[in-house]
Amino acid sequence: MKIEKFKVLLYLKKSGMDKNGKAPIMGRITVNRTMAQFSCKLSCTPSLWNPRASRLEGKSKEAVETNKDIEQLLLSIQKAFDVLVEKRTDFEAKDVKEALQGSVKTQTTLLSFVDEHISELSTHEGIDMSKSSVWTYRKIRKNLAEFIGEKYRLTDLAFGQLTEPFISDFHHYLLDEKGFSSGTITIYVSLFKKMCRIAFERGLCKNLLFAHYRVGTPKVTTPKALSMSDFIKIRDVELPEDKPRLSVSRDLFLFACYAGTAFIDTVSITKANVKVLEDGDKWLVYNRKKTGTLARVKLLPEALELMAKYEDEARDTLFPLLSTNRVRIDLITICKLAETSKTYSYHSGRHSFASLITLEAGVPMETICKMLGHKDVKMTQRYARVTQKKLFEDMDKFIAATEKDFILAL
Q1: Global pTM exceeds 0.70
Q2: Domain assignment of residue 80, given as a range
Q3: Strand, coil or helix: what is 248?
Q4: How far apart are CA 24 and CA 42, in angstroms?
Q5: Residues 6+ apart with CB under 8 A from 409
Q6: What digits encode the pLDDT tens for the residues 274-319?
């Protein structure tokens, strides 16, 4: 087919002004003597539009962002035209339009795939996927939908419409518009990239999108352990008798201090996870819900007392099930009643086991690593910080040893 004319014209449809006073940008594709009109899915302030250049004038945020979208649109049209030319068959303007937009109707859209992925993850909830992890994916979906609505004025996008700037723009949207922390943004962007990779592996998109995009690693913050005084305050504080759930939440938290369990593990471990060794000692042996790694902890007398307190033949788990949000709120109340120096999260109990209960008692780091179920001792070194008390004790031992060697040398 001989191409005598190929042209793309952009213009404003001023009769379709929206409530913000912006007019939709329309397009017209001409191939030889055929024409096809289409909506660009963009709009702009009419006073900024330059009909000769088919661009917005000035350097305002609206002009810069809309012009960038127009450039990307024109590149997509040119790409659709080139693909048809390569086929060496006759085609018209409407075929270019359909090559550009028609794929949107047949391709799996981004948000529909995310919905499907979340649905799949939900079937694993409580098995090898925590409720909080599924909740994180739902938050990503919510923010993606809001971003697409604000940026593209659409309810969804096909994978074929995603371009490299998409993930960068989404990143800055989370940072500038939503005000999320760098840690949250890293998690959201990383999981979004993971979903795009899964879509590629399933053949839902032709290219592996955003594989080379990097977002800064969030600053690692170590959960705070309880001071001994705060630990005693929480353990001994008198709780209101008319609110028995506070006592349950406090006991679940204390169990984390005595056994180093994360919340999801505390409410999930069963009687089968308690093993009695030949010497009669009881050990808690379980696979962590978060990582699947094996954790082995010798149960302290205080932990055994808490287990006995909640023993129930009708329930297989060691403790009653409370929601993580409920316990979080209860701990805020408990810390206020106990007049602690700060408010602690449930995970502070696990960290207290690592530093306050075991490290300060002289338990080796490698042993703590096994008890916490860490894959690498480096994780434990970051997690169980060397406390000031432990540091002083180690220095005293070092000084005593060097003094002894010095005397022997004399």
Answers
A1: no
A2: 6-106
A3: helix
A4: 6
A5: none
A6: 999 777 889 899 998 877 888 888 888 999 999 999 999 889 999 9
One-letter identity of residue 282: K
Coil, strand or helix at 131 = helix
235's tokens: 């353990």
Same domain, yes or no: 233 and 340: yes
| Pair 86, 119 in one domain | no
Tell whether 241 and 387 lie within a shared domain: yes
Judge if 121 and 187 occupy the same domain: yes
pLDDT tens by residue, 202-256: 777 767 778 888 876 545 555 577 888 898 999 999 999 999 999 999 999 999 9
Q: Which of 106, 138, 155 is the last residue of a domain?
A: 106
Q: Which residue has the tokens 């206020």?
A: 336
User: Could you tell me if 87 and 119 lie in one domain?
Assistant: no
Q: How many helices and strands, by DSSP H and E, does the chain display?
A: 16, 8
Indicate the pLDDT class of residue 79, thresholds 50, 70 and 90. confident
Q: Is residue 258 within 8 Å of 303, Cβ to Cβ?
A: yes
Pick from 401, 409, 360: which is nearest to 384 by CA? Answer: 360
